[in-house]
Design brief:
Elements lengths: L2 E4 L7 E6 H8 L3 H10 E6 L4 E2 L11 E3 L5 E2 L7 E2 L23 E8 L6 H13 L6 E7 L3 H15 L3 H4 L2 E7 L7 H9 L1 E6 L8 H7 L4 E5 L16 E3 L5 H10 L1 H4 L12 H16 L3 H8 L30 H12 L5 H29 L2
Parallel strand pairs: 2-3, 3-5, 4-6, 5-7, 8-9, 8-11, 9-10, 11-12, 12-13
Antiparallel strand pairs: 1-2
Helix pairs in contact: 3-4, 3-8, 10-11
Length: 382
């Protein structure tokens, strides 16, 4: 669901922020509808994932973008950018860090899902190579598996990798899997598991700015990250105490190096938390919204002072009418639902022609999506 930062009033336009995955649907709305939205709202787009934009992206439709460095690639200089992303809205740790107050049980922890871009299968391949050279790290893997066939097949492949390990190697692996549609691991449990770990492994091909990295840094974990990862995740890693590795095929050697030199790596200092915490970033967000829109700072501040921004821009905390969102997420991913949402937002009714066009667009996108998924599945096992 688009994030309504500020409702329109008799004095000011409102502020409406689409997620990048929703903007494409909005862009396909008839010009008459988009013009009506622009007459009533300043329109922004939040980039939760790395994207390369066309030269014409956002022309006449977008007033600003919310994206950290290396995420919205090719963004026109004519569109103001608020340099924030998901990891800028992290809660301050409730616990005070004390180096000796908790035992380090795991050498490495992975937290993510079973999408192939997360490269969890490359990590488990690395564990197989480590096993062959007699290296048996203690590893905790916490993974969500969604309903997509790609994720289920990849999860099966990961299980096969783990089952092929020697008995001693497999005994050191803890693999926690849960259904992303139903189960949720409490944040406090994740934070505890982090603090019981020495290093977070983030081998993804692409991200936006992975919040789990910020959460690890706030608990003084070392981060082992793929240097070629697209996005903004690697922007703030410590050049001395975090590791950016270049070759996924040699990940087991990176792990070996870390384990052999942990006495050095564990000296990692706490980073400047201002780049991560919501308490700091929200004020920057409010100030930039005021500058871009011309709405008085105090007006923006009063709107947002009690707002929890942690997942607001990426839509995950909004409590929304299901009639405006897709079945599996709380995002507005179809043209028909976008028309319904904008009707509600603007307190108006669109004619049947708009609904007919929206329905035809959804049918076309459904067929195109099935073709893309089929191609990706073929690529998965090539």
């Amino acid at each position: 669901m688009p994030f309504l930062f500020k409702e329109k009033s008799q004095f000011n336009k409102g502020v409406l922020i689409f997620k990048h995955s929703e903007y494409g649907v909005y862009k396909n709305m008839p010009e008459k509808i988009r013009r009506l939205v622009k007459d009533n709202y300043f329109v922004g787009v939040y980039f939760g994932f790395v994207m390369r934009l066309s030269e014409s992206w956002g022309k006449n439709d977008v007033d600003f973008a919310v994206a950290t460095d290396n995420v919205a690639l090719g963004l026109s200089s004519d569109i103001p950018r608020i340099s924030l992303n998901g990891f800028n809205f992290v809660d301050s740790p409730n616990e005070e860090f004390k180096e000796t107050d908790i035992k380090k049980i795991y050498d490495f922890i992975f937290i993510g899902n079973s999408q192939t871009r997360k490269n969890l299968h490359r990590l488990t391949e690395g564990l197989k190579k480590a096993d062959k050279i007699g290296l048996h790290p203690s590893v905790l893997i916490v993974s969500r598996v969604g309903s997509a066939l790609e994720e289920k097949l990849n999860s099966y492949r990961i299980n096969r990798h783990i089952q092929s390990l020697s008995d001693i190697a497999r005994s050191k692996i803890r693999y926690i899997v849960f259904d992303s549609r139903q189960d949720q691991v409490p944040k406090d449990a994740i934070y505890l598991l982090m603090r019981q770990s020495k290093a977070l492994i983030c081998p993804s091909r692409s991200e936006g700015a992975a919040r789990v990295v910020a959460e690890a840094c706030l608990r003084r974990l070392n981060v082992i990250s793929f240097s070629e990862m697209k996005g903004g995740t690697n922007n703030f890693l410590d050049s001395q105490y975090d590791i950016k590795f270049d070759d996924l095929n040699q990940l087991h050697l990176t792990m070996k190096n870390f384990m052999e030199h942990y006495d050095f790596y564990k000296q990692k200092p706490l980073l400047n938390s201002n780049i991560y915490l919501e308490s700091e970033s929200k004020l920057l967000f409010i100030r930039r919204i005021s500058e871009i829109t011309g709405i008085a700072y105090n007006d923006c501040f009063n709107t947002a002072k009690d707002l929890n921004m942690r997942n607001a821009l990426s839509c995950h905390t909004n409590i929304l009418p299901s009639k405006f969102t897709s079945k599996q997420t709380d995002e507005t991913h179809t043209s028909v639902k976008m028309v319904m949402y904008l009707e509600n937002l603007l307190n108006t009714r669109f004619d049947v022609i708009n609904y007919a066009k929206a329905h035809l667009s959804d049918v076309f996108q459904f067929i195109l999506g099935k073709i893309r998924k089929s191609i990706n599945l073929i690529k998965l096992f090539l």
